[in-house]
Design a protein that fits this description.
about 375 residues, mainly alpha, Serine Threonine Protein Phosphatase 5, Tetratricopeptide repeat
């Protein structure tokens, strides 16, 4: 008899506990309606682990609603109740969808899941603005995936996830999302530029160029794509290709001294000295204070002079007239170099190479006062 009484009491207690847990779900709903989020959280938390209520779609639906409200609340007293309510809300809705065999809550859940996608996107925007690119990449990727689970494609979320991952140097994740965008034929020039840079950073310059060429098919007039291609060609010593795109870039922007200078260096290296000089002169005309252009043009004329003078020294001793002619030509070329090297010196007075080159010219042309001054500067 005592044993039966004990079992009956246990059954009553167990039944009471289960009823209490079921009541918790209802209480959470009611507290949520009254915006009492602390009480709603307190009521719903134990319900998701209780045997009676943990497999009920309603429990997880209400749990998601409570935590989504914690994510959205502007009330300071509720903001600190959980460290990451958004993730918990989303995971709860996903669990509720699996348990909702009768589709009783499915439409409402999907509406709220869309809100979580928007919240992840907003989280990404904030992190991106703070240059916390790993966090923004994660948030944008979550937003994209949540929408994907809803059967929606959010191209903006994929783009920002890819860009954030690129800035965070998470190149595998960046490539994955950029390629998703390419597959959906999404048009944004940054896709091609960043994918190219990722390939270049891993040493695959062929892939880097190819993606830029693909980009130029879509954006033939984009200046940055042209410049990116030129830089890769320059870095890989593909002179002809570099000149092609540089000349194209110059057509697009005739006021960019750097483009003329870059083209000049290629002509210079390939022995097309007249073309190189013209490009350097164009760069200087646009930007008279351009040190590299002034120095390179002066050095070009100086090297020509040195070559002529060396050839003159190799002539037979009886070739006096020819020697005098070549020597005069060499000295004239030195004089041609002088104003550009002196300008380079004025722009960067501490450049040792410029000082030494000027010393050689002053010595050659017997410009003793200037030679004395330059020697004093070198000695310092």
């Amino acid at each position: 008899m005592k044993k039966s009484i004990i079992l009956l009491i246990a059954a009553i207690l167990s039944s009471g506990f289960m009823m209490a847990q079921t009541k918790n779900v209802v209480s959470a709903f009611n507290y949520l309606r009254k915006d009492k989020l602390d009480k709603a959280k307190e009521a719903i938390d134990p319900a998701i682990t209780n045997e009676k209520t943990k497999d009920d779609a309603k429990t997880w639906f209400y749990y998601g609603n409570v935590y989504l409200s914690l994510q959205l609340t502007e009330e300071e007293e509720y903001k600190g109740l959980d460290d990451n309510p958004l993730d918990k809300a989303y995971e709860a809705y996903m669990t509720a969808l699996k348990l909702d065999d009768k589709k009783q809550y499915t439409d409402e859940i999907n509406d709220r899941v869309q809100v979580t996608a928007e919240q992840y996107f907003n989280r990404g925007v904030v992190a991106y603005g703070e240059q916390k690119y790993e966090k923004s990449a994660e948030a944008f990727a979550k937003s994209a995936n949540v929408n994907k689970n809803l059967g929606r494609i959010d191209s903006a979320a994929y783009l920002y996830a890819a860009q954030s991952a690129y800035f965070a140097e998470q190149f595998d994740e960046a490539k994955e999302n950029f390629n998703i965008l390419l597959d959906m034929q999404y048009q944004d020039v940054s896709i091609y530029r960043m994918l190219s840079d990722i390939n270049k950073s891993t040493g695959d310059t062929t892939a880097a160029i190819n993606i830029l060429l693909e980009g130029r098919k879509q954006f033939p007039d984009d200046f940055n794509l042209i410049i990116d291609a030129a830089n890769i060609y320059l870095a890989t010593n593909q002179s002809e290709e570099a000149l092609d795109v540089l000349n194209l870039a110059i057509e697009r922007d005739k006021t960019n001294a750097t483009l003329y200078f870059a083209a000049g260096t290629i002509y210079d290296k390939t022995g097309m000295l007249d073309e190189a000089a013209d490009m350097y002169l164009d760069a200087i005309e646009i930007d008279p204070e351009y040190f590299d252009a002034n120095y390179n043009l002066g050095a070009l004329y100086y090297n020509r002079a040195a070559e002529i003078i060396t050839k003159a020294g190799d002539l037979p001793l009886n070739a006096v007239d020819e020697y005098d002619t070549m020597l005069a030509e060499g000295n004239d070329m030195m004089k041609k170099a002088l104003p550009y090297l002196e300008k380079a010196d004025a722009i960067q007075p501490a450049d040792a190479i410029t000082l030494e080159t000027l010393k050689q010219i002053y010595t050659r042309l017997n410009m003793m006062e200037k030679l004395k001054a330059i020697n004093e500067r070198i000695e310092k």
